[in-house]
Write a structure and sequence with these properties.
Strand order of the largest sheet: 1-4-3-2-5-7-6-8
CATH superfamily of the largest domain: Spore Coat Polysaccharide Biosynthesis Protein SpsA, Chain A
Distance between the termini: 59 Å
CATH class of the largest domain: Alpha Beta
Number of helices: 13
Number of strands: 10
CATH topology of the largest domain: Spore Coat Polysaccharide Biosynthesis Protein SpsA, Chain A
Structural class: alpha/beta
Oligomer: single chain
Order of helices and strands: EEHEHEHEHEHEHHEHHEEHHHH
């Protein structure tokens, strides 16, 4: 394990992995399938460098450590990882990917025997991608460089791979979190919410979506489409593992306080992960809430159409029909956005699109969409014509027809939305179906 440094150049940061929350699985259990995915390939981060030479010798294990301004900890991390490789008898290397450090971190890592590569594109995910691309081992262990993880237990992340697993995930929740290692808000609120979102949205089990140490077989890594450059890389990695149904196992790890002081996790990092999970699930983000609002809004309008609803403390009158109309229209907008997102995924990534969206488009033609919207618009228009006729019969005098007028307006707006959506969907799906 020689100490070398590779300068940043035109090829630094190459993403040769492709594009791409899984979860930690119980011991000796295979990964669950992932059905909620609407991901698209992205461009490589930068062009690969064909002149970069691999290290000499047969490397079995590569420990990849992303690093940015970790001078207080990176040396210890490299020493700990190298000692573990030697103690366990793994032919290996430690690859440190520097992400623009200004405190001498690369030099310290190099002095301790790491091979240092550079990633000019700022971000945790970008550094991980560059380090994984530069690593030469058959088994790749990814670990943070801030000293928070015990790298002396690397064997926990290598032996399952040798035994046939594709991915090994660390878990702090089933391991040990030392005092002052994590802010209370992250430990008891933000990270549990992220884990819950992963379990809820993508139907796989996980105990710790943000653990900073994990391992993967090289051939399994080549199947993942990774491209996130920020902290959301961790959840993207897990999503891709689940999508590919890789055989995965979870092992406990200890989480220590950062050697440089305060924990680095921020609310912004947590939001980026949560945002990433939401964007990967159009059903939960758009279709589910949209259908709920649409049904709730129409139910409220129909309930108030005959007259006010009298409750013991107050009456619910026609004023709430305006609320119902707004909810129904908003719900329809969300449903259409969800269908657009699913259609976009079907066109650009058909292998991983939900089966129902293909069946939907095979049956829901432009003409049927226009007919459905036209019928709904026509129903609203007929109600308005009836109101006008009733007003004329009464000699154009005082008229109170707010209830049917609100319902008619809602029908007409929903109908118009469906008509125009049918045209847009036809344009969106044309590349996949060869027709509009």
């Amino acid at each position: 394990m020689s100490a070398t440094t590779e300068p940043a150049g035109p090829g630094a940061g190459a993403d040769v992995l492709g594009r791409g929350p899984v979860a930690a699985f119980p011991e000796a259990a295979a990964a669950s399938s992932l059905t909620e995915l609407a991901r698209l390939p992205t461009r490589p981060l930068v062009a690969p460098d064909p002149d970069q030479a691999p290290p000499a010798g047969d490397v079995e294990v590569s420990v990849v450590i992303p690093c940015r301004n970790e001078a207080a900890a990176i040396g210890g991390c490299v020493r700990e990882a190298r000692a573990a490789l030697e103690r366990c008898g793994y032919p290996g290397e430690v690859v440190v990917c520097d992400n623009g450090s200004t405190d001498g971190s690369p030099e310290r890592a190099c002095r301790e025997g790491a091979r240092v590569v550079h990633q000019p594109i700022r971000g945790y995910g970008a550094a991980c991608l560059r380090g994984l691309e530069a690593a030469q081992g058959r088994y790749l262990v990814l670990a943070d460089g801030d000293g928070t993880y015990d790298l002396s237990v690397i064997n926990r992340f290598v032996e399952p791979l040798r035994a046939g697993y594709d991915v090994v995930l660390g878990t702090r929740r089933n391991g040990r979190i030392l005092a002052d290692a994590m802010r209370a808000a992250h430990r008891h609120l933000l990270e549990p919410i992220q884990t819950w979102l992963s379990r809820r949205f993508f139907r796989f089990r996980v105990s710790d979506v943000r653990c900073g140490v994990r391992s993967i077989r090289r051939e399994a890594l080549s199947r993942l489409r990774l491209g996130a450059t920020g902290m959301e890389f961790a959840s993207e990695f897990l999503v891709e593992v689940a999508r590919e149904r890789l055989k995965t196992v979870e092992v406990p790890v200890s989480f220590r306080p950062r050697r440089s002081g305060e924990p680095r996790r921020s609310v912004g990092d947590g939001w980026r992960v949560a945002r990433h999970l939401l964007l990967l699930s159009p059903t939960r983000l758009f279709l589910g809430p949209g259908l709920l609002l649409l049904i709730l809004g129409l139910a409220l309008e129909f309930a108030l159409l005959p007259g006010p609803i009298r409750l013991p403390a107050f009456n619910v009158d026609y004023h709430f029909m305006f609320v119902g109309g707004a909810l129904a229209i908003l719900g329809m907008q969300l449903v259409l956005l969800g269908i657009y997102a699913k259609t976009y995924a079907l066109v650009h990534d058909p292998e991983f699109a939900d089966p129902w969206i293909r069946r939907f488009h095979l049956r829901y033609t432009l003409e049927r969409g226009v007919a459905l919207g036209g019928l709904l618009f026509g129903a609203g228009f007929i109600i308005d014509v009836g109101i006008l006729a009733h007003w004329a019969v009464r000699g154009f005098g005082v008229l109170f027809a707010v209830r049917p007028a609100v319902l008619a307006l809602t029908f007409m707006v929903l109908g118009a939305e469906i008509v125009f959506a049918a045209f847009f969907l036809s344009l969106l799906r044309a590349p996949a179906f060869g027709r509009v």
